Each structure stands twice: as structure tokens, then as C-alpha cells.
Amino acid sequence: MDRVAIIGASMTAFGDRDAWLLALLAEAGDAALTDAGVDGDDVDHLYVSNMASGEFEGQTGVPNALAHDLAAMPAYTARIDQTSSSGGAGIYAAWQSVASGASDLTLLVGGEKMTHRTTGEATDVIASLTHPVEYKHGVTLPSFAGLTARKYLAQYDAPRESLGKVAVKNHRNGLDNPHAQFRKEVDLETVLDSPMVADPLRLYDFCPITDGSAALVLCPESVAAEYTDDYVVISGVAGATDTHVVHERDDPTTMRGVVESAEQAYEMAGRGPDDIDVAELHDMFTILEFLQSEDLGFFEKGAGWKAVRDGVTDRDGDLPINTSGGLKSKGHPLGASGVAQAYELYQQLLGTAGDRQVDAEVGLACNVGGFGNCVTTTILEQP
Amino acid sequence: MDRVAIIGASMTAFGDRDAWLLALLAEAGDAALTDAGVDGDDVDHLYVSNMASGEFEGQTGVPNALAHDLAAMPAYTARIDQTSSSGGAGIYAAWQSVASGASDLTLLVGGEKMTHRTTGEATDVIASLTHPVEYKHGVTLPSFAGLTARKYLAQYDAPRESLGKVAVKNHRNGLDNPHAQFRKEVDLETVLDSPMVADPLRLYDFCPITDGSAALVLCPESVAAEYTDDYVVISGVAGATDTHVVHERDDPTTMRGVVESAEQAYEMAGRGPDDIDVAELHDMFTILEFLQSEDLGFFEKGAGWKAVRDGVTDRDGDLPINTSGGLKSKGHPLGASGVAQAYELYQQLLGTAGDRQVDAEVGLACNVGGFGNCVTTTILEQP
Asked: Which UniProt keywords apply (chains A, B) (predicted)?
């Protein structure tokens, strides 16, 4: 079967943006179309990955408005929501639109506008994805992260400092990402001394609240070269769910959605963990980077923290992880994050990642919704 | 290419339901799986078409919760939103999931829970899909419908009574639909004497606010017979957009999204308007049934009202329209409506529509978001 290619990609600056969602989407969408060398009227399908434009800014029907603003009418549009992994779900939807023959050219734009709301309001919207019983007892996502981190540290004899090293590494990478929300190095002491949020996790173990957008242009690989010499292919993409009720899981240190979606994506790509040269993982909380790096098969269970400690996941290590700065430093505009992961891999595979450049032919992105409730895994490769 | 089959379908009772969205979705999803003779763990992909669970009941992440409640984990899930045409967009997404080879068995469940909110709150959420400038000037969807109806009546020399006849016909059909919200006949006088909403449209020209859910089970046609003898195929499906800003349209009595999506769906199916035996149209307002019946090519422009007047679209007419009762009588739970349209066609094509049964081999559903902002058209056929 003809594979699906990414012939254009972009992201906006992430951070505290003085613009509504539609403007952010238009900025990224326009830049991705320009990168691909196509116009709005070349677009057959336009997908917007976004969790909560209605809740955050009282505006729905945004995909239709975006089709208008990008002069893409009468392109088909829809919004894809998978909470914090909406971006990965958007990639899967965009892939399906091309792979099914429904669209010859698809634009995916992910985005979220959040910083105009208070932290309490924003976290209330995010918390609405959890199970009401857990939520009403106060067990929100940060609480799950704290409980899971505590269990992980005990189970695998890992020191508290190991978590902090994820933050230090990802901030170091983000320093070289012109689009990152936080472009500053942090040392381990700063992380370990930051305010406690959910023991053992402290403020610097968490990603920020962010505005931003990212976009991809997809078409069949068979015609990609007609548009550009600089493209990558989606060799694998899949998604899976885990329990909505987190306390029903046998062991929260294993993310079943990651394991399942990765198995399917590896099989589709004819690849395994050893083939991956660079990865973007969903480090909404530092502990999640350990869990994903293990559940994706990069490292043995319980060995993820040692890989970070030993520099294996540094930019000059064997398997660089979160060269973009990750959600931790780059920021996490929910619907954009999965798309921005793919944008980073696109740059790494095309050799346009500037100071962040690593040597990579195959990249993997893992986008996590909720506390692993729904997960998508995407594998990108040089053609 | 292998076509996509619908091997199971269902809908819940529509109306004022004492249940949250998740329970309604589980009710329809479970019934559709039973109809197809499969279990939750047979499901590869699970799509939920829903506009606004976050706004209406403060709950997001519903697809994940549904995967849990239907024992469908680790099935991939996502929410598809296209405002009031989310159901049609869900059909397109589910079709793509099977046609692309990503899923061997897909469950689509559409639903909305609205009646627990006041009419003002519900219409505020719906109005958020319109352009802010129009909305803030008070030009909401009912206003557009009134303005367009007035123009249509003048342009095509149609009497006010012609609109009322849509309501009379669809209520008569809904009387025989056990799932309909309103099972009562209304006479023309009642419609014409009902309270004015947006001149010339009166209360009985509008669909109600509704709770409900509907579901479909899809698989490749090549394996459909392994599940059941009673299935239909999706021979055509497509979607298109029109301007988000309604006053930018050359002529609001032509819905460009209907024209474009129908052209593509007809081409895909190798069918034309003359091949359609039964149709479910999006009669959110009575005037919309005229516009769609013309823009789909069933009748000449300006002749839709005469077809209703002459009984052509009655159950015993040449082209029965809205045998289910339509949104007008059956109700309009936003994310469910497009899926429920397909459920009606599924029954008509399988000969299980009971007192509503008409003679049909090919059916068409047209699902409209906003005031024609985004539209999907689906053609279903006997195998």
C-alpha cells in the first residue's frame, strides 16, 4: 500500500500568546502550507485537533472558521478530540483520510488557547477528562503522577533525583528551540528545591499551561516528490486505550495504552524499539518519560531512570529523547502537543533542527491523553 | 476497492432522558454491538460523535470512558466534532478507519445530552458555532433560518403554508417511530398558529432540544457476511464546508456544502439523485428540507416546496423524505442526529422499518452543521 507522506510542517511560538485559538491555528496552518508549497484551495480535508475551544473560549465550529480563514473552502473539516492526546489522534485521522483515498491532500492543525484562563479554571477543564469519582475525591492527574512516581521510585530503587534529571535534560534541549515556552536551563538543585505539588513531584516536574499551534500537510507518498524533495513518511501509526478509572489498573507504572499502540505501530512500520533513533515522549510529568521509554521497549522495565542518569537520552546519547524540550520546556497546548512532536521529528529527519540536530533516520512520537487513558504512537522515517 | 458495510445499528429513545451522555452512548453502543452479533472486545476503533459534552455536562474524555463501559479496551477511541453534523462526520471517520485498513471493526456512537440545561443555556452553546460578529449582533441560527425562509418564499413564489407542510409530514412519520421525541400528529393550522420565532418561521418550524444516542457497527464488505446476512453498504460518503460567516454567501437559499458533498458522494457511489429511493434530510428548521432537497438534485431549484405540497416526499410518494420523522419530530441530539439518519436508512434498506417501511434499495442522508457551514452526505445501499 502507498504510504502517507508529510510534505510540510510548522509550529507557532508556544507560550503566553495574545491571540485567540483561530488566529493561532491560522498562523500554523498557513506556515505549513507555505512549507509544503501549496495553497488553501489544494486542501481536500482539514482536521483540527483541539480538546476544549468551547470550554476555554466559548467558541465552537473552529474548523469551519479555519477553512474560511485559510481559503480552503469547500474542504471537508472536522475537530478531533482525544483530550491531551488530541494531536496524536489528529495525525491518525489525517493519515486515515489519505490512506483511505478520501483526501489527496490533508492539512492537520492542532492547537489550544489556555493562558487567558486562571490556572484553576484551566485545570478544572483538564480534570473533566478524569473519572468523576476519582476527580471528586481529589485524585486529579498530578495526584496520579505523584502516586505513580512514588511507586516507581520504590519498585525500581530509583532516587528522587532521577526524576529531576528529566526536567534538567528537557530544559537544556528547549534552550535551543526557538518555539519553546521556557528557554532557560535549570539545574538539578532548582528542580529539587521547587515547591512540592504531589509528593515526590515538585513544580519543575510538571509542564506549564500553554497557548500554541502546530500543523502538518499530508499526501500519498507516491506524489510527495511532486510537491517537494523534503518530506518524511509515516511508516507506523496506531492508538489504544487504558482504563478510564485509573485505580482499576494492575500496576500504574505500566501504561497499557503505550504498550498496545507501540506494538501496533512497530508492526505496521516493520520496526522495533532498536530501530528508533530519536523520540518525542509525552513528559507532561517527568515520571511519564520513564514509563513511556520503558513501555515503548527502549529500555527494560525499571531501567528508564538509569538511561536518563547515564546520558543515554541526551542529544549526544544513543537515543535522544525530547530534543524539542518536550512538553516540560516547550509547553503543552493540549491539541497542539502531538502535532508539535511530529514537527520536531520532521525537522530531525530532514536535518533542519539547527542546534538541536541529532543523527536520525527513524523517529517515534508518543502522545498521551489523561493518565495514559488514550495513547497514540507514530513512527516517522526518511523516505 | 472493498466497500465498507454497516452490520449493526441502533438508537435509543430520543427525548428528555434521565441519564448522562455516557449512559446514553453505552445504551446505543451495546444495542448496535448486539445487533451485529459482536462483543466489545471485537472493536478495533470506537468513535464518539458529540459536539459539546464538556459544555453541556462538564465531562470530557467520554470516548475513553465508553471504551471502558463497553469492555472495548484497548480499542482506539476519539471524539469527532463537527457541531450539529458531528454524526455525519462520525460516519465519515468510521468509514475512513475501515477503508484505510486501520480497523477491521469500528463502532461509531453519536450522542448528546442537552435537556438538563435551560433552553437559553443550550442555545448559547449551539450559538457558539456561529461567527462571533454575527452572533453578537443577534443573528443566530433561527434568525438565519427566518431570513432565508423569507427570501425563499419571495424568490420562488411559495406560500407560507408550504413550510408548515414539512412539519405536518414529518410529525406524521414520527408518529410511527417508537424512538421519536414527539409522537403526535400536528395539523397545518396548529403549525401556522404556533408562536412566532423568526418571521416567517414559527415554533413548529423548529426541531426540539433532545437527549439521545445512535450507533453503527462497520466492517469491510468482504467480511460482512461472516457476521450477518442483514447488512447495508456505504457506497458514497463525503463532506464539504461553506462560509463560517453566513452573510458572505451569494445566495443563502443555496447550501454550497450540500451541493459539494453530494457531488462527491454521488460520484463515489456511481449514483445520481434519480437513484435515491429514500432520504433523511436535516430539517432542523422546515426551510432546510426545501433547500437540501433541491441542492441534492432531487428537485429543481425552487421546486422543493411543490414536491412537499404534492405529496412526492410522503411515505407513499415517489421520494419519501424523513420517514423517521426527521429532526423535527424525532428530535435533534446534536452528535446523534447524523448517526440516527443512517439508522433509519439501515432499517428502510433491510425492510425492518415497521409501519414506516417504504420500498427502497438506495438511501441518502444529509447532515448539516451550523447553517450549512459544514455538511456530510452519505449514500447507503443494499449489498
From this structure: Acyltransferase, Isoprene biosynthesis, Transferase
Domain contains B43: yes
State the CATH number of the domain containing residue B55: 3.40.47.10
What are the residue ranges of helices labelled H in chain B? 21-36, 53-57, 62-69, 86-99, 119-127, 132-136, 141-155, 160-174, 188-193, 221-227, 256-269, 286-295, 304-309, 326-330, 334-350
Nearest residue of B to residue A93, measured between CA atoms: B93
- Structural contact between residues B83 and B369, judged by C-beta atoms closer than 8 angstroms: yes
> A207: closest CA among A112, A295, A301?
A112
CB-CB contact of B145 with B201 (8 Å): yes
Of the partner residues A67, A95, A374, the one whose CB lies closest to the CB of residue B77: A374
Query: Hey, is the C-beta of A83 within 8 angstroms of any chain B C-beta?
Result: yes
Q: Which three cell numbers stand for residue B116?
A: 438538563
The percentage of chain A sitting over the pLDDT mark of 90, rounded to a whole number, equals: 96
Q: Does B61 touch chain A (CB under 8 A)?
A: yes
Q: Under a CB-based contact definition with an 8 Å cutoff, are residues B78 and A94 in contact?
A: no
Q: Tell me, what's the pLDDT at A133?
A: 86
Mean pLDDT of all residues in chain A? 97
The torsion angles phi and psi of B52, rounded to 5 degrees, stand at -155, 50
For residue A379, the distance in angstroms to the closest alpha carbon of chain B comes to 15
Complex ipTM tops 0.85: yes
Q: How far B82 CA lies from chain A's nearest CA (Å)?
A: 5
- Please check whether residue A80 is in contact with residue B49, taking contact to mean a CB–CB distance below 8 angstroms: no
Do β-strands A45-49 and A106-112 pair in parallel, antiparallel, or remain unpaired?
parallel
Residues 96-115 of A with CB under 8 A from B: 96-97, 99-102
Q: Across the interface, do B73 and A245 touch by the CB < 8 Å criterion?
A: no
Domain assignment present for residue B307? The answer is no
Question: Beta-carbon neighbour count of residue B195 at 10 Å?
Answer: 7
Domain that holds residue B96: 4-117+210-227
Residue A164 has pLDDT above 90, yes or no: yes
Q: How far A217 CA sits from the closest chain B CA (Å)?
A: 18
Closest Cα partner for B144 from B2, B304, B253, B273? B253
Q: How many domains does chain B have?
A: 1
Positions of chain B with pLDDT lower than 50, given as ranges = none
Residue A5 has pLDDT above 90, yes or no: yes
B260 touches A at CB < 8 Å: yes
- pLDDT tens string B321-335: 999 999 999 999 999
* Tens digit of each residue's pLDDT (9 = 90 or more) over A39-98: 999 999 999 999 999 999 999 999 999 999 999 999 999 999 999 999 999 999 999 999
Residue B27 lies in a domain: yes
Query: How close A226 comes to chain B (CA, Å)?
Result: 23
In a domain, A11, yes or no: yes
Range of weakest confidence among A3-7, A242-246, B104-108: A242-246
Looking at residue B351, its amino acid is: G
